[in-house]
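TA notes, week 10

Several of you asked for a full example with nothing omitted. So below is the full record: structure tokens for the whole chain, then the designed sequence directly under it. When grading your own attempts, check the secondary structure regions first.
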């Protein structure tokens, strides 16, 4: 079964898209996780749908407790594109460029997170994604359920 995107005629399996969507929502902000100020969901969703490597990357969130260097670099490039920098793959570089271009007057919330903060954000999204697949964890109450059947 194939799903066709109205964004830019990309083609990918429904299963991979649905799996990536859960990771994507955990990463871009959900009821228990932080979001990127002023970025919303539509623009990042269009970026994800436009490149199969992003669908694959967000599908991988929650599979393991460790984030590989490869996965981090793909998501870092994704964040650069969210902030309008298509040819950059370093959030630290675009933070610096945005700061310089504004003459030091850009509000902090308009800058992307630095690399260290992005790593923590990815780890949090990874944890959220892991919890979403655990049948005995109640996310709304943040506690384990008693029925382990």
């Amino acid at each position: 079964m194939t799903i066709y995107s109205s964004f830019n005629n990309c083609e990918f399996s429904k299963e991979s898209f649905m799996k990536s969507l859960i990771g994507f929502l955990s990463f871009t902000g959900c009821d228990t996780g932080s979001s990127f100020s002023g970025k919303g969901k539509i623009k990042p969703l269009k970026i994800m749908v436009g490149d199969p490597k992003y669908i694959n990357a967000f599908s991988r969130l929650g599979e393991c407790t460790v984030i590989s260097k490869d996965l981090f670099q793909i998501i870092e490039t994704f964040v650069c594109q969210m902030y309008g920098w298509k040819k950059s793959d370093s959030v630290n570089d675009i933070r610096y460029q945005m700061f310089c271009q504004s003459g030091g007057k850009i509000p902090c919330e308009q800058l992307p997170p630095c690399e260290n903060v992005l790593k923590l954000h990815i780890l949090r999204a990874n944890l959220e994604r892991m919890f979403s697949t655990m049948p005995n964890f109640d996310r709304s109450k943040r506690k384990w359920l008693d029925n382990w059947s």
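DSSP finds six helices and four strands in the chain. Use that as a sanity check on your answer.
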